[in-house]
């Protein structure tokens, strides 16, 4: 499950051959897409909300150091502890350290992309501490030993037969048919885990600087259990999750659920500020906020791509992406997939680990249309493409660079351009089919003609015809 | 180690933001006066809000019992207890529930009361009964604020959660709620360790997108709306 | 909506795009025919070649910039020399038009002098359907065509330029046309320039979905405003011998009974 390198072309081709994945992807994305459309249409000033949400994120990110310090102060004031982790390894070390100090034998976890990012579970396992995923989709994925396939619905590709088989193999129970029965099994198993766990680890959708409040949004109730029952609560939160003021939550919660699943509100939203108060009857005794950098501060430095940090992890871009719809989450090679994965994976992991990703898009912009914080994905992708080209001075891009040089030379000189067109008309003849189009072409254009005809260069280009028609009346 | 990382992270951020214009663009808001406005608008619209709220509750699989008065409310609770053969309950010791003496009456009906202090025991309670601090009409959301009389687990661990809601709990939308909460924070009320929004019973669609209720949180949610 | 001042004559310079020039000259010819029939003076600057988009989209922004500068100088110079007329640059491609109107701002953001040229040119630059509808205030150009038409919204046209209703109005005004909206009419067809060659299997799977929608719509003719999309969709239709005609909007509008 460790990350090595993104292999988009390879993995996407595998995904395209997987019939049940294809079916599941269509179902999930159609469902979420139409739900989101309906939910956003119900809100009369939806576009204004998106604009405001973007503005708040922009202001926060552009003053991130200031707001982080305010957040730290607020968390401390309310009895919590703040830890700063510059990378994945340090974050895991801190969290395992908290567990060791608290004599923790078992941990329950609610869904958190950030904890997947740092591969926290394997650090716990290495330290001999039991860790259980409690989000049903994540629980299924954990049993299967895989990465999640979608931000909101991690187990999309799995049919109920897959899950039934998985449960009976790993949990030693009979085969169950219905989702209700499978869910009941998970509820019972996990309930005892919750009650016996010494520590709960969660992520957070938002962290409010002003009050030190972290906000966790969910439908199942496992995040509430994770953050209420065990005596220690650790929240791992990316530094970009900050918002400045308590009342900003009104706006963000309104756009989050509607963008993610089309619900007006997710079932549960927990607003957690520090550990239990001395007069509270229940709740954790310790609250730890672990702030995660892991490359986010580097993204900050780039003006063109800084808005990648505005993301509130709703998944709307995935559901609207015509590429994601076909290739699914695993093709993106890491925990973040779809358009947001395409822009942050290369930035967090390094462009040399994921050079395909910025190109794994037709730049259609459907993601931009639905992003609640209006991230301009095509713009960021174009910037990342530039970075990829610049980073590979030699090596595999030699042919492409040569091609671009030739193209440039041709279009900079009209006479060369005209000659090239004329010559192409004659040179293409061997590949011209009976339908007047080119039925095959040499590599790399064979990648087109394998499945599609390519147009033929016209005998008379427009500029040649122009000479004849320019004096014609209308 | 974490201390050095703190400095490192802040340093990287500051360096990355060099030259970025950072004017404060937020307007100063007077939440006290905004809250007064909001309360006025809520009062003016109350009957419409009630209708909206009840409609939204039903949209999210919440069972609604509209009770015209305390007696009717208690009767419907008794009916529920008989129908579902409930034997034990956990309850908030909050102001309104104390006023109507609900805990004692349920004990008198031979139900076992279970304290929230012991997590294993409260998990075995048949029902958890709370009131609400606020109720959001727009989305059918119950707002519960944890404090010494209002433990979190009562609305979380038992398989059934029953909340008593009164018209004065209602706000129109989430915007109203945060204005009111912010006005109280401004008046230096200590913020709660945990505020929870509850919109319907626990649910998932993780298995083939089919909706299943009652994953980890309560399977059933009842709202007794005291008209 | 801009109304042309009847006192100042209109002159259009064709921004032909390398794709149309080289592979689909009939689209350019149709455009000229339609504009002339509406009383517009049409001209063509012969030095033009490409706007730079292929390099820009592939990450070769330095190369794109050089080519874009050339494009700018050619058009800027010519249009500045026409003080007595309302001049426009009209282009049969949503993606090339958005290159000039949207992306040139980014490319030249640090060069104030060039940015001036960009702004001068981009306010005069229109995609063909946009020009007809918003500048000439025309949706009925007197065309005739017998067929069931469905329309594919090309991505840049729809999302960068916000053009959606105009082309549909123009199509519906053609005598003899029955218009059928297809499902997923605004979903990407899988072209994306070099994307179609870098990830051909993904591209074709998106194309498959588009073709299914076209067939399900019952249309016998597909119309769009971008030859990139049309060569992609058309290339698959001809390979699979599916008898749906593929036509640029300009070609449709040039048809006479």
Provide tags for this entry.
heterotrimer; A: 474 residues; alpha/beta; Rossmann fold; 6-stranded parallel β-sheet; 4-stranded mixed β-sheet; 22 helices; 50% helix; C: 257 residues; 4-stranded parallel β-sheet; globular; disordered N terminus
Task: Tell me what the structure shows.
The complex is a heterotrimer of chains A (474), B (227) and C (257). Chain A is α/β, with parallel strands linked by helices and 474 residues long. Chain A folds into 3 domains: 1-42 and 317-395, no CATH class; 43-294, NagB/RpiA/CoA transferase-like (Rossmann fold, 3-Layer(aba) Sandwich); 398-473, no CATH class. Chain A has helices at residues 8-17, 19-41, 46-62, 64-77, 88-101, 113-117, 120-126, 136-144, 160-171, 179-196, 222-228, 248-260, 296-301, 316-320, 324-327, 338-349, 366-370, 377-391, 398-412, 414-427, 446-449, 462-469; strands at 81-85, 106-109, 130-133, 199-202, 206-208, 213-218, 232-238, 242-243, 268-272, 286-292. In chain A, helix 2 (19-41) packs across helix 12. By secondary structure, chain B is α/β, with parallel strands linked by helices. In chain B, the strands form 3 sheets. Chain B has a 6-stranded parallel beta sheet with strand order 1-12-7-4-2-3, with helices on both faces. In chain B, strands 8-5-6-9 form a 4-stranded mixed beta sheet. The model of chain B has no long low-confidence stretch (mean pLDDT 93). Chain B has helices at residues 2-16, 31-44, 46-59, 70-84, 95-99, 102-108, 119-122, 174-186, and strands at residues 63-67, 88-91, 112-113, 127-131, 134-136, 141-145, 160-165, 170-171, 194-198, 203-204, 212-213, 220-226. With 257 residues, chain C is α/β, with parallel strands linked by helices. Chain C has helices at 18-23, 25-37, 53-57, 61-80, 94-107, 112-124, 128-135, 155-160, 165-172, 195-198, 200-217, 227-239, 249-253; strands spanning 10-14, 41-44, 86-91, 125-127, 144-152, 175-179, 221-224, 245-248. In chain C, helix 12 (227-239) links the parallel strand 7 (221-224) and strand 8. At the A-B interface, helix 2, helix 3, helix 4, strand 1 and helix 5 of A face helix 1, helix 8, strand 9 and strand 10 of B. Strand 9 of chain A pairs antiparallel with strand 9 of chain B, so a sheet runs across the interface.
């Amino acid at each position: 499950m460790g990350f090595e390198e993104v292999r988009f072309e390879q993995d996407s081709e595998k995904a395209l051959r997987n019939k049940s994945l294809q079916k599941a992807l269509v179902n999930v994305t159609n469902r979420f897409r139409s739900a989101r459309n309906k939910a956003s249409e119900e809100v009369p000033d939806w576009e204004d909300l998106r604009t405001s949400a973007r503005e708040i994120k922009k202001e926060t990110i552009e003053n991130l150091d200031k707001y982080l310090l305010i957040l730290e102060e607020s968390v401390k004031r309310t009895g919590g502890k703040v830890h700063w982790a510059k990378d994945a390894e340090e974050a895991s070390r801190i969290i395992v350290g908290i567990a060791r100090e608290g004599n923790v034998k078992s941990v329950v976890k609610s869904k958190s992309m950030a904890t997947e990012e740092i591969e926290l579970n394997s650090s716990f396992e290495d330290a001999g501490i039991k860790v259980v995923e409690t989000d049903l989709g994540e629980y299924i994925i954990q049993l299967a030993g895989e990465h999640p396939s979608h931000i909101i619905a991690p187990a999309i590709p799995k049919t109920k037969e897959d899950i039934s088989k998985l449960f009976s193999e790993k949990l030693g129970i009979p085969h169950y048919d219905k989702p209700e029965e499978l869910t009941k099994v998970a509820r019972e198993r996990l309930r005892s885990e919750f009650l016996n766990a010494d520590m709960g680890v969660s992520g957070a959708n938002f962290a409010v600087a002003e009050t030190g409040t972290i906000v966790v949004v969910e439908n199942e109730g496992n995040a509430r259990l994770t953050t209420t029952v065990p005596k220690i609560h650790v929240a791992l939160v990316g530094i970009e999750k900050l918002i400045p003021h308590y009342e900003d939550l009104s706006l963000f919660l309104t756009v989050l659920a509607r963008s993610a699943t089309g619900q007006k509100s997710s079932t549960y939203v927990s607003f957690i500020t520090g550990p239990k108060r001395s007069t509270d009857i229940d709740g954790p005794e310790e609250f730890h906020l672990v702030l995660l950098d892991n490359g986010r501060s580097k993204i900050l430095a780039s003006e063109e791509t800084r808005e990648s940090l505005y993301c509130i992890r709703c998944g709307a871009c995935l559901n609207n992406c015509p590429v994601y719809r076909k290739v699914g989450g695993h093709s993106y090679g890491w925990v973040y997939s779809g358009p947001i994965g395409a822009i942050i994976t290369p930035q967090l992991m390094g462009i040399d680990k994921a050079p395909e990703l910025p190109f794994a898009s037709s730049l259609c912009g459907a993601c931009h249309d639905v992003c609640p914080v209006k991230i301009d994905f095509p713009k960021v992708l174009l910037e990342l493409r530039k970075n990829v080209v610049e980073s590979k001075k030699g090596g595999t891009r030699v042919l492409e660079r040569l091609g671009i040089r030739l193209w440039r030379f041709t279009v900079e000189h009209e006479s060369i351009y005209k000659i090239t067109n004329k010559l192409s008309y004659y040179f293409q003849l061997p590949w011209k089919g009976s339908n007047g189009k080119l039925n095959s072409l040499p590599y790399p254009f064979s990648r087109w003609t394998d499945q599609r005809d390519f147009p033929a260069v016209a005998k008379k280009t427009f500029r040649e015809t122009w000479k004849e028609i320019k004096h014609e009346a209308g | 180690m974490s201390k050095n990382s703190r400095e490192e992270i802040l340093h990287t951020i500051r360096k990355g933001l060099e030259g970025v214009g950072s004017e404060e663009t937020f307007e100063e808001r007077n939440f006290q006066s905004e809250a007064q406005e909001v309360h006025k608008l809520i009062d003016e619209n109350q009957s419409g809000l009630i209708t909206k709220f009840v409609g939204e509750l039903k949209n999210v699989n919440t069972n609604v019992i509209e009770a015209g008065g305390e007696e009717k409310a208690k009767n419907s609770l008794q009916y529920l207890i008989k129908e579902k053969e409930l034997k034990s309950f956990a309850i908030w010791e909050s102001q309104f529930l104390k006023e109507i003496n609900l805990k004692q009456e349920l004990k008198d009906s031979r139900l076992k009361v279970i304290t929230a202090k012991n997590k294993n025991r409260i998990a075995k309670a048949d029902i958890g009964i709370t009131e609400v601090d606020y109720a959001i009409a727009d989305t059918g959301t119950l707002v519960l604020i944890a404090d010494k009389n209002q433990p979190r687990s009562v609305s979380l661990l038992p398989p059934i959660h029953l909340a008593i809601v009164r018209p004065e709990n209602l706000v129109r939308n989430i915007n109203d709620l945060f204005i009111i909460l912010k006005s109280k924070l401004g008046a230096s009320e200590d913020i709660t360790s945990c505020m929870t929004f509850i919109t319907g019973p626990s649910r998932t669609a993780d298995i083939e997108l089919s909706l299943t209720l009652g994953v980890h949180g309560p399977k059933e949610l009842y709202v007794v709306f005291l008209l | 909506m801009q109304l042309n001042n009847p006192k100042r004559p209109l002159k259009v310079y064709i921004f032909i795009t390398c794709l149309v020039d080289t592979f689909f000259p009939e689209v350019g010819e149709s455009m000229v025919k339609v504009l002339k029939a509406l009383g517009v003076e049409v001209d063509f600057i012969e030095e033009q070649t490409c706007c730079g988009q292929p390099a820009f989209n592939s990450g070769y922004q330095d190369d794109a910039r050089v080519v874009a500068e050339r494009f700018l100088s050619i058009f800027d110079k010519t249009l500045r020399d026409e003080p007595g007329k309302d001049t426009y640059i009209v282009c049969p491609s949503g993606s090339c038009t958005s290159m000039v109107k949207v992306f040139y701002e980014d490319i030249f953001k640090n060069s104030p002098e060039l940015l001036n040229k960009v702004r001068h040119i981009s306010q005069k630059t229109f995609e063909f359907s946009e020009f007809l509808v918003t500048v000439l205030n025309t949706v009925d150009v007197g065309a005739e065509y017998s067929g069931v038409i469905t329309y594919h919204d090309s991505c840049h046209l729809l999302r960068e330029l916000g053009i959606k209703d105009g082309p549909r109005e123009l199509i519906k005004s053609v005598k003899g046309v029955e218009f059928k909206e297809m499902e997923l009419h605004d979903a990407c067809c899988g072209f994306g320039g070099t994307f179609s060659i870098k990830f051909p299997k993904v591209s074709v799977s998106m194309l498959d979905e588009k073709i299914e929608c076209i067939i399900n719509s019952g249309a016998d003719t597909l119309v769009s405003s971008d030859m990139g999309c049309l060569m992609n969709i058309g290339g698959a239709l001809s390979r699979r011998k599916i008898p749906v005609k593929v036509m640029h909007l300009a070609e449709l509008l040039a048809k006479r009974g």
